[in-house]
Design the sequence.
């Protein structure tokens, strides 16, 4: 999507811009493209020295039974698509809408429809929305969507549409009545031209390019949503249809055409979305990706405040850092918050590009005044926590391990105050508040224990106290807060 | 300033915290300190293996005639000081306040008093407030303060107080009637103990330490506002009394005492303040510092939007980048905006710590969605602009050079639209809108020209067009927007 007018750009850049013109064929031998004018229907040829393909990606619309009969079913790619949806909502005043797909487009649509007073159901095949982040982080958003009144249906897909799309049958057998359907289940690279011209395709049919963004034909570059890129973190091929990479690639191709040798470094996949009142942002690889690739990693979850607690409107940021314990390499980071998630992910994306490791994060000298951060920024905190783990000062267990540990007879100490337990606790845990721990060591019946607190900090301190007293101890990473995102 | 209670910290950390206790002497030979209890008046000794000095810095209160008779004159160091000022405002309901000093404490006080409905005069000796940024950037804040109704008095100082502080005589002869005076003209390191103990002092009397933060006596560490630090950018000694360095230093000393070898890298000076509705943030060295040290540098000013223009509440960020044209080294950055300044300075502070140069900034993959940024983030834009300069694609002139150039008969083309000139222009410039430039080259009477536009972008494009047509041309960096911060 481009946010400029034809006249504006033509005048400024002395460009010959032909809109309403579809390229229908590339003749690589003769170095010409065939163009069909959508105004006149006329077809003509244009020659090129170099050709840049930037055809984007189009919304996936699978052959679900009844899909073609669905009357109020929309996909979303460009401004005209948005206009159509807006017109439909303005004129038909739908009461109920169903959004299929919990990616950033689906979630943004859910939010916008909700803002217009439409009752929204969001159907997502996976067990979570927002694929770039991991399950426990997405769970914070699930809670938020449900609080807002969105009917969130996870682990279920559309089997068929009936009644011209007014009735949706899900795989589970569930049925949804709806006045409007938004289909946002992903995009597929526009590869028709490239494929027909015999250019090499890669993952998910994306056009394959080299570091200079040249296709198999060196006179033909390809950029944007249509291409396969290298994952900046793990080096494998991937497909990341986002605006920053498209932009950067465009500039690199312009450089290269003009004789400046510039290479695309690969895509980190930094992404962000507004989810109602919250922000979710991520960069680099998530656990799911690392697991799939068999790369070993460690994780810390912290929940520091977006800014100083004594200044109004501070909110905790759920910040997750994924890294290599040996080298300190940062694989990725995820943040969910009402405020300040964008800044921390941008800082971490910059740290990754600067080759900084978790060992360097405490040394990031970030701007502090009460309205903006704390004297120790959340990124510093995540760094300290990761470093403590890497240096063996603490061992941790993750949110998804603790229930099994308890079931197997593990001894779990809750080091919070009794009043905090009243607000929610892990069943089967024993309460010894941190302030009393040193005096109550005798009560602990086993040498192997687990501890937890609200966010991980007091748990860490308890771990240190217990380790020094000779216990073998692990702290629940991210504390009750991370655990309860999922188990509540 | 510490934001914790004595009980909370004692319990959690098993610490012996003695408040209302003043250390009055260090006996290095015997490794004891002399402590005076402010509750009982009693004096006793305590021995140490290692001693950590963190006495901070105290507000400077020079012997200005009449200062001791001034009744409603306050300085500000801690919570009790704040309470006193608040009590005075609540009870005496002053109509007029005078803040002396335009650093971040002075400006924050001006804002808070203004919020309480007090008429505020701010007196600053230098030609600008907010010393960490340069004059043209501070000028944006000067405009903002004046718009808010603050009576801003620059390049003037207090000569004397009369009438128990109700009348202030300035050096210029100006007189100010006031009900309340806040003195915030800087802080001086608390060095009395260190000095008397014969420890080495440095710049402005700050305690001198090595990389491990040890004083001349290796059993005595010193940290925080009391110490001299190394400037991270230029390596020279400096004194930067901020909370991030104090915190980081505390942790490094703790590490070192516990046998972990950890070094303080020096202070970058990343700082931030809320100035009424605006934010000012900076990192690294400013022009003033580099000039003083005789380091050569280049500058770009850009004014990109805090986020996508088509999403509500986007504001331009005045972003200044100072760098070395040869190596690309980033010396510093400054940002002033209603929104998003903190994020960009944190990203740039991280880039500096990662050893990234201006050539890397376009490759920073930052999070984009319309509420948060643009597909090209302001930091990317600043990087592109700096790179264009470093690679010789454009030459620029600065805001402070253009008036002299015009006075010397220079030919300056305004490439904006006529309607933009109506809103303000540089006197003596000739108008040729960018869209017409290619066709009107014949009108330009000389081969050496200067161009400007609103923010520098169209000026850059005009520069490229003119260079390709054989002109020798320089673009006004930052455009009319940077120029008019000062000359309007
Ligand atoms: C609703 C929506 C919201 C988005 N929000 C964000 C966001 O917040 N952040 C983000 O990073 N990304 C976002 N994106 C993704 C972003 O828009 C894309 O990554 C970016 O536009 C890709 O640029 P591109 O040039 O590759 O493709 P596109 O912008 O899709 O442009 C491709 C163009 O090529 C044209 N075309 C295709 N085939 C031909 C042909 N044969 N002949 C002529 N023309 C052809 C298409 O009509 C289209 O105009 C969003 C996308 C959508 C749909
Ligand atoms: C109003 C105000 C606002 C600020 N805002 C910011 C901000 O937004 N961002 C930022 O980065 N920084 C800010 N600062 C600066 C920040 O507070 C300091 O950099 C930081 O507190 C320094 O920590 P320190 O331990 O060196 O000194 P301090 O926090 O000053 O602590 C020193 C302590 O030592 C005590 N002491 C001194 N001598 C003795 C002695 N002989 N015996 C016993 N005790 C002694 C003092 O009473 C004091 O309690 C602000 C400062 C002020 C005054
Ligand atoms: C007051 C203060 C010193 C108290 O510190 P604290 O209670 O120990 O809390 P900290 O934030 O220092 O964290 C303590 C430890 O817990 C660890 N920790 C914190 N959160 C954690 C988490 N979620 N999981 C695991 N470990 C965690 C930290 O890494 C740290 O460990 P380490 O120092 O042994 O590596 C601290 O809050 C502080 O420095 N505040 C700043 C004061 C200030 O802002 N002054 C300026 C005002 S202008
Ligand atoms: C539409 C678009 C391509 C127009 O680009 P444009 O008008 O050329 O503006 P650009 O931002 O690319 O800047 C052009 C040049 O001016 C330079 N420039 C910009 N501001 C400058 C300044 N203040 N001083 C000096 N040079 C400046 C840039 O460095 C660039 O130069 P270069 O490319 O020769 O190095 C651009 O705005 C864009 O990419 N938008 C993103 C679209 C989008 O957001 N899509 C996603 C929607 S989901």
Sequence:
């Amino acid at each position: 999507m481009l946010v400029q007018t034809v006249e504006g750009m033509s005048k400024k850049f002395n460009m010959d811009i032909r809109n309403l013109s579809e390229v229908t064929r590339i003749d690589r031998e003769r170095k010409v493209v065939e163009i069909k004018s959508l105004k006149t229907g006329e077809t003509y040829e244009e020659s090129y020295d170099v050709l840049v393909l930037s055809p984007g990606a189009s919304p996936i619309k699978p052959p679900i039974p009844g899909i073609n009969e669905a009357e109020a079913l929309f996909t979303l790619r460009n401004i005209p698509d948005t206009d159509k949806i807006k017109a439909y909502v303005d004129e038909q005043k739908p009461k109920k809408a169903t959004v299929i797909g919990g990616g950033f487009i689906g979630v943004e649509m859910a939010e916008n429809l909700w803002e217009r007073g439409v009752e929204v159901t969001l159907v997502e095949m996976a067990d979570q929305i927002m694929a770039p982040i991991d399950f426990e982080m997405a769970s914070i958003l699930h809670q938020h969507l449900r609080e807002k009144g969105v009917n969130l249906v996870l682990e279920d897909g559309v089997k068929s549409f009936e009644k011209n799309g007014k009735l949706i049958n899900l795989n589970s057998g569930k049925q949804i009545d709806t006045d409007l359907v938004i289909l946002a289940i992903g995009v597929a690279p526009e590869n028709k031209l490239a494929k027909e011209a015999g250019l090499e395709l890669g993952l998910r049919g994306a056009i394959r390019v080299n570091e200079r963004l040249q296709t198999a034909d060196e006179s033909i570059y390809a950029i944007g949503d249509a291409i396969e890129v290298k994952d900046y973190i793990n080096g494998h091929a991937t497909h990341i249809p986002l605006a920053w990479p498209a932009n950067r690639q465009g500039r690199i191709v312009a450089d290269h055409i003009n004789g400046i040798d510039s290479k695309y470094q690969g895509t980190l996949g930094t992404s962000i979305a507004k989810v109602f009142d919250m922000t979710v942002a991520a960069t680099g690889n998530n656990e799911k990706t690392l697991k799939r690739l068999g790369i070993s990693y460690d994780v810390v979850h912290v929940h520091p405040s977006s800014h100083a607690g004594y200044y109004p409107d501070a909110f905790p940021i759920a910040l997750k850092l994924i890294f290599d314990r040996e080298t300190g390499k940062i694989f990725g980071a995820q943040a969910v918050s009402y405020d300040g998630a964008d800044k921390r992910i941008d800082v971490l994306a910059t740290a990754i590009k600067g080759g900084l490791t978790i060992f360097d994060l405490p040394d990031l000298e970030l701007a502090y005044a009460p309205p903006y951060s704390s004297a120790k920024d959340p990124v510093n905190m995540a760094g300290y926590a990761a470093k403590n783990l890497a240096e063996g000062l603490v061992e941790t267990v993750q949110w998804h391990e603790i229930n099994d540990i308890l079931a197997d007879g593990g001894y779990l100490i809750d080091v919070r105050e009794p009043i905090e337990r009243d607000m929610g606790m892990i069943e089967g845990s024993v309460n010894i508040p941190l302030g009393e721990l040193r005096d109550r060591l005798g009560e602990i019946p086993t040498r192997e224990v687990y501890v937890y607190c609200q966010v991980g900090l007091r748990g860490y301190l308890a771990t240190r106290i217990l380790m020094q007293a000779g216990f073998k101890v692990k702290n629940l990473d991210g504390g009750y807060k991370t655990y309860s995102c999922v188990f509540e």
